Amino acid sequence: MKPVGVELRRIAMPLVSPFRTSFGTQTTRELLLLRLETTEGEGWGECVTMTDPVYSSEYTEAAADVLRRHLLPALFAQPHLDPWTVAPALAAFKGHRMAKAALETAVLDAWLRARSISFAEWLGATADRVPAGVSVGIMDDIPALLDAVEGYLAEGYLRIKLKIEPGWDIEPVRAVRERFGDGIPLQVDANTAYTVADAQHLARLDEFGLLLIEQPLDEEDVRGHARLARQLRTPICLDESIVSARSAADALALGACSVVNVKPGRVGGYLEARRIHDVSAAHGVPVWCGGMLETGLGRAANVALAALPGFTLPGDTSASGRYYRTDITEPFVLRDGHLDVPRGPGLGVSPVPELLAEVTVSNEWTAR
Ligand code: NPQ
Ligand code: MG
Fold first, then answer.
1. pLDDT of amino acid 291
2. Is 158 within 8 Å of 133 (Cβ atoms)?
3. What is the largest CA-CA distance in the chain?
4. Count of CB atoms situated within 10 Å of the CB of 178
5. Sign of the alpha-carbon torsion through 191, 196, 197, 198
6. Cα-flanking dihedrals φ and ψ of residue 237, to 5°?
7. pLDDT tens across 38-83, in order?
8. Does residue 291 line the site of ligand 1, with CB under 6 A?
9. Which pLDDT score, from 0 to 100, does residue 49 have?
10. Using CA atoms, how far apart are residues 103 and 154, in angstroms rounded to an integer?
């Protein structure tokens, strides 16, 4: 399989409702799609960067720039493409994991489609469907939060994650527990909004029996998380801090977390994501699949990953309708609180040309 060229497509999709986290409020999801053309057919990859570098240092314009200037030329210099040569071909360039992940996914999709193998089968997925969790943004007040959670539970979501920040933590969790009971699987995500000085405050969450608290401290504060872990009963899960299998192994060895959120974009692709699954499984540590407000394309790949045996907790793999009125692929829908794992060749879904055209902002073609 030889590369022919890559289309970089910018799209903008309105969210069904504003999504507020400790780093800001999003009303539109702007993202970058890659369509790789090869001598054996095309493949798609979705770059999960945000418009602004507020979740991590990456952002969409930087991803497009590094792809154009560095990553695509390095890929095009390869005489043959396969899923194992992409990361080594890009390794000379530091960081930019989300951009690399998108390119590796496009190669994987093309390679698997050409061979009529599904991504799930190739990864080693053992489940036909995966339980769906939902991430609930910070709201203006508690009644609005309870309405939102009630709606998601009615839809069938099997796990609720509340976004928290200082001033929106103990009371929202208490309110959800009081209203919906101790039986619902519940967790929180701080997106780095606290410091170790908040340990006593965060320990007040212990009484609510949460599955985990996700990334309370700065992404670089791995030792702080280890210290915090000794002061909380609530298990700590890392998201932003885990950027590779090596950093996952280090965090586990230090006792900084006892659960890992796996986001393929954050760690440079699905091969590295699977290594994190493997290293966590070797430690007996549960993993779950995070979400970056993907379209159906990225969601399909995430659902395939979440079907690996070590993904023992529900992920942020929600239905398309959680974020988008109209997805660009056939939508992912909840059936009994689960999403079906795509079984068609490659990612198993494709953008619908008319729907894609509606959300396209710009499009550029780079020939090999
Ligand atoms: C997390 N995701 O686990 C992220 C962060 C996040 C589903 O909670 C636009 C694009 C808005 C990506 C908001 C979830 C976003 C985004 C939050 C990612 O930390
Ligand atoms: Mg998170």
1. 98
2. yes
3. 61
4. 11
5. positive
6. -115, 135
7. 999 999 999 999 999 999 999 999 999 999 999 999 999 999 999 9
8. yes
9. 98
10. 37
Q: Which residues lie across from 288 on neighbouring strands?
A: 261
**What is the rounded end-to-end Cα distance, in angstroms, of the chain?**
13
Answer for the pair 80, 90: CB distance below 8 angstroms, yes or no: no
- Has 163 been annotated as catalytic? yes
Domains of the chain listed by start with CATH number: 3-116+350-367 (3.30.390.10), 120-340 (3.20.20.120)
Interval 266-318: pLDDT, tens: 999 999 999 999 999 999 999 999 999 999 999 999 999 999 999 999 999 99
Q: How far apart are CA 234 and CA 255, in angstroms?
A: 14
**Identity of the residue numbered 37:** E
User: Residue type at 113?
Assistant: R
- The whole-number pLDDT of residue 345 equals 98
- Beta strand 287-289 with 259-262: parallel, antiparallel or unpaired? parallel
pLDDT beneath 70, residues of the chain: none
Look at ligand 1, atom 8, and give the residue with the nearest C-alpha.
Answer: 135
Are the beta carbons of 133 and 339 closer than 8 angstroms? Answer: no
Per-residue buried b or exposed e for 250-277, using 16+ beta carbons within 10 Å of the residue's own CB: ebbeeebbbbbbbbbbbbbbbbbbbbbb
SS3 337: coil
**Residue 342 and residue 330 in contact, taking contact as beta carbons nearer than 8 Å:** no
Whether 50 is in the pocket of ligand 1, judged by its Cβ within 6 Å, is yes
Find the 192 Cα to ligand 2 centroid distance in Å: 9
Tokens of 183: 């039986």
Q: Find tokens 């079984």 and name the residue.
A: 343
Model pLDDT, residue 272:
98
Q: What tokens were used for 321?
A: 């309708």
Mutate to test the pocket of ligand 1, among 11, 21, 240, 289 (most ligand atoms within 8 A of CB): 21
